[in-house]
Amino acid sequence: MNVLLLCIGGGIGAVLRAMVTARLSSFDFFKIPITTLFVNLLGSFLIGYLFQIYTASHAAQLFFAVGILGGFTTFSTLSLELLQMLQQSKKRLLFVTYSVLQYVACFIACWLGVQFHL
């Protein structure tokens, strides 16, 4: 049953991410990949929030947090984007800025999700 929850949730999350990516891809006036940042911020907030709501239900945590949000957020995409920035010598400052923004902002978003529920 757990594997089924993960598969369904992961599929839903991946479809949601593709929809957000398609919708936000036209916002290319930013110097950073804004879609990845948005998805990771939203996913971080929601995982913090949902883990407060579904503390008693392991199945709900698997479905929502690991499944849907695991399929929705984009750590592997983030890693590739950072590598591509680092490989372009003119984008080293952008690499540092984007790295800090992703990790710090997503941590804060997760914390806010927890606080929002309390």
Automatic annotation (TrEMBL):
<dbReference type="GO" id="GO:0062054">
    <property type="term" value="F:fluoride channel activity"/>
</dbReference>
<keyword id="KW-0813">Transport</keyword>
<feature type="binding site">
    <location>
        <position position="70"/>
    </location>
    <ligand>
        <name>Na(+)</name>
    </ligand>
</feature>
<keyword id="KW-0479">Metal-binding</keyword>
<feature type="binding site">
    <location>
        <position position="73"/>
    </location>
    <ligand>
        <name>Na(+)</name>
    </ligand>
</feature>
<dbReference type="Pfam" id="PF02537">
    <property type="entry name" value="CRCB"/>
</dbReference>
<comment type="similarity">
    <text>Belongs to the fluoride channel Fluc/FEX (TC 1.A.43) family.</text>
</comment>
<keyword id="KW-0812">Transmembrane</keyword>
<feature type="transmembrane region" description="Helical">
    <location>
        <begin position="95"/>
        <end position="114"/>
    </location>
</feature>
<keyword id="KW-0472">Membrane</keyword>
<comment type="function">
    <text>Fluoride-specific ion channel. Important for reducing fluoride concentration in the cell, thus reducing its toxicity.</text>
</comment>
<protein>
    <recommendedName>
        <fullName>Fluoride-specific ion channel FluC</fullName>
    </recommendedName>
</protein>
<dbReference type="GO" id="GO:0140114">
    <property type="term" value="P:cellular detoxification of fluoride"/>
</dbReference>
<keyword id="KW-0407">Ion channel</keyword>
<keyword id="KW-0915">Sodium</keyword>
<dbReference type="GO" id="GO:0046872">
    <property type="term" value="F:metal ion binding"/>
</dbReference>
<dbReference type="GO" id="GO:0005886">
    <property type="term" value="C:plasma membrane"/>
</dbReference>
<keyword id="KW-1133">Transmembrane helix</keyword>
<keyword id="KW-1003">Cell membrane</keyword>
<feature type="transmembrane region" description="Helical">
    <location>
        <begin position="32"/>
        <end position="51"/>
    </location>
</feature>
<keyword id="KW-0406">Ion transport</keyword>
<dbReference type="InterPro" id="IPR003691">
    <property type="entry name" value="FluC"/>
</dbReference>
<feature type="transmembrane region" description="Helical">
    <location>
        <begin position="63"/>
        <end position="83"/>
    </location>
</feature>
